[in-house]
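FAQ: What does the model actually see?

It sees only this:
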Amino acid sequence: MKKIILLVVGLLTFLGAADFLMPQEAFKTSAVLDKNVVEIHIKLGKDIHLYKDSLEIAVDSKNIAIENIVYPESMLLKDREVYENDVALLVNLQKNSDISSKEEIKVHLGFQGCSSEGLCYEPIEDEFDFSIESVLLAQGAVLQNKPIVQSKPSVKSSETDTITNSFKNDSIWVVLLTFFGFGLLLSMTPCIFPMIPILSSIIVSQGENMTAKKGFFLSLVYVLSMAFAYTIAGVLAGVFGSNLQAAMQDPFVVIAFALVFVALAF
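And it is asked to produce this:
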C-alpha cells in the first residue's frame, strides 16, 4: 500500500512539474497602424520571457520601408537582454519612392522566448496586413536594387538552428546516417548506465551456454536497436517540424506516457 501511495504522489508531482503553456498561450501577438507607425504588442504568459536579440521585424513592400524601431527597456538575464512583461514595439515607416497612393503592406514579426521553468520554445513567426496612406509617410532615401530594409538587432543562431540549417542541403541518406550515429553516441553516455543491469540480465538469463561471442552479439543488437529507434524519432521530428518540445507538455500526452510507465511498473 505504501508503494502505491508513493507511486501516485510521484505521478502527481511529475504532472504538476510539466504544466507548461502552449506557444499560443505563452505569446499573444497583435498590431495596429496609426498613420506612419505600426505598434506591435506581444503579451507574455506567466513566467515567460522573450529574448530581445531574437526579435526580427521586416516590411514586405517595394515602396515602403522601416525607418527605425523603438524598443522598450529590457533587463539582463544570464547575460542576455530579455523582456518579462508585455512588449510594445513602435515601427516607424517611411516611403522610399515618390508615391501618393494607398499601399498594401505586410509586416513580418519573428521572436523566441522561454519559460522560467526551463522550457524554451521554437522560434515563432507572425505577420500582419495593413493598408497605409503613403501621403502620410516621410520621404526616405530611394532604394535601388536593394532588399527590403530590416531594422533589427543582431540575431544569434541557437544551437538547434545551426543543426537544422546543416541538414537543409544534405541528402536524406546523410541525415539518416547522422541520426543513426547520434544514436550510437548516446549508447556511450552516462544516460545509458541504468540500462546496463537490464542488458546484463538479458545476457545472464541465457544460461550456461552463453559465450563471449553470443554476449557481444546480444549487446550489439541491443545498442543498434536503440540507435534505430533514435533515428526514427529524429526523422519524425524533422518531418513534422513542429514544436514537439512544447507539444509534449500537453496534459493528455503527459498522462498517456505516465500511464505507459505505470503499466510497465506493474
